[in-house]
Amino acid sequence: MHSVHSPDSDATMDEMCEAAIDAGLRGICFTEHVDLDPHYYSYGSYDYAETMKDTARCREKYGDRLIIKSGVEITYLTEYADDVRQFLTEHQFDYVLGSIHIIDHVFVGSEEHFIGKTEQEAYEPYWREMIAMMESGLIKRVGHMDYIKNHRPKEYGPFDLKKWEDYIRHILHLVVENGATLEVNTSAIRRGFPEPYPSWDILELYREVGGTQVTIGSDAHKPDDIGQYFADVAKRLDEMGFVVCGEEIFSCRV
Ligand SMILES: [Zn+2]
Questions:
Q1: C-alpha–C-alpha distance, residues 161 and 203, integer Å
Q2: Is the separation of the CB atoms in 62 and 19 below 8 Å?
Q3: How far is the centre of ligand 1, averaged over its atoms, from the C-alpha of 34 (Å)?
Q4: Which of 18, 101, 103, 111 is close enough to 75 for a disulfide, judged by CB 3.0 to 4.6 Å?
Q5: Cα dihedral angle (134, 136, 139, 144), rounded to 10 degrees?
Q6: Dihedrals φ, ψ of 178, to 5°?
Q7: Cα 166 to averaged position of ligand 1 atoms, centre (Å)
Q8: Residue 105 Cα, ligand 1 centroid: separation in angstroms?
Q9: 240 C-alpha to center of ligand 1: Å?
Q10: What is the pLDDT along the chain (254 residues), one digit of tens a residue?
Q11: How far is the CA of 251 from the centre of ligand 1 (A)?
Q12: Residue ranges per domain, the chain?
């Protein structure tokens, strides 16, 4: 989840902690955005010292009621992989979520990414970046795997997993081989999708290739988003045979 320390949220950490306590959560992790592409609007917005100071203050204030972990959601980009590596070497976190947000300096969660592109042209670079992210060894927690579905143009027709199955299987194999985990992100449901990121059929494939663990996140940017749809999604994950990781995930060096 995010707070005012991310450029796209204006919720204070206090508001987020209080909402998490009200939602009955035992623990949370702030995963503030870190974007290292100088062409992207949020470049340079992350302030490590400020964020850590604020987190420590919240631990003092709410620590008896809520486990508060400190992480980042870092945008992986092959072009800036060295910067990602350097950033992660120089800073300490409980948890590092890696996401593909940008292709050719454009946000993949926007319509702009699809303008003038065939499905092949829009999707292939996204999956390739995700493969590169896993091959880099820098990321062990994969954020919202099929985020690219947000603005899928109608002209493409319904998403056909078969068409992208080789790429998706390849990514999932790398996730399993690297001892990594997928984040199951319920914000897709908030956006009107009937299922989380990634979709249930991708999660079935993940299971098939040996995936056993997931984390669950609401990707909350405001207090009302916190813990949304967790009960239903966690139930289904459990039925599928997944272990939904909680606090134990933070004991691994990520
Ligand atoms: Zn994200």
A1: 12
A2: no
A3: 10
A4: 101
A5: -40
A6: -85, 0
A7: 24
A8: 15
A9: 25
A10: 999 999 999 999 999 999 999 999 999 999 999 999 999 988 999 999 999 999 999 999 999 999 999 999 999 999 999 999 999 999 999 999 999 999 999 999 999 999 999 999 999 999 999 999 999 999 999 999 999 999 999 999 999 999 999 999 999 999 999 999 999 999 999 999 999 999 999 999 999 999 999 999 999 999 999 999 999 999 999 999 999 887 665 544 33
A11: 23
A12: 13-251
CB atoms within 10 A of CB 194: 8
Q: Which residues, by Cβ under 5 Å, contact ligand 1, an ion?
A: 99
Strand spans (E) along 58-190: 67-75, 95-99, 102-103, 106-107, 141-142, 181-185
Supply the pTM of this predicted model. Answer: 0.94
Nearest alpha-carbon partner for 33 in 85, 87, 71, 82 = 71
Q: If you measure from the C-alpha of residue 61 to the centroid of ligand 1, how many angstroms do you get, rounded to a whole number?
A: 28
In the reported structure, the alpha carbon of residue 73 is separated from the centroid of ligand 1 by a whole-number distance in angstroms of 7
The first and second tokens of residue 156, run together, are 């493409």
Q: How far is the CA of 203 from the centre of ligand 1 (A)?
A: 18
Rounded to the nearest angstrom, the distance between the alpha carbon of 43 and the centre of ligand 1 is 14
Cα of 41 from ligand 1 centre, angstroms: 14
CA of 3 to the centre of ligand 1 (A): 13
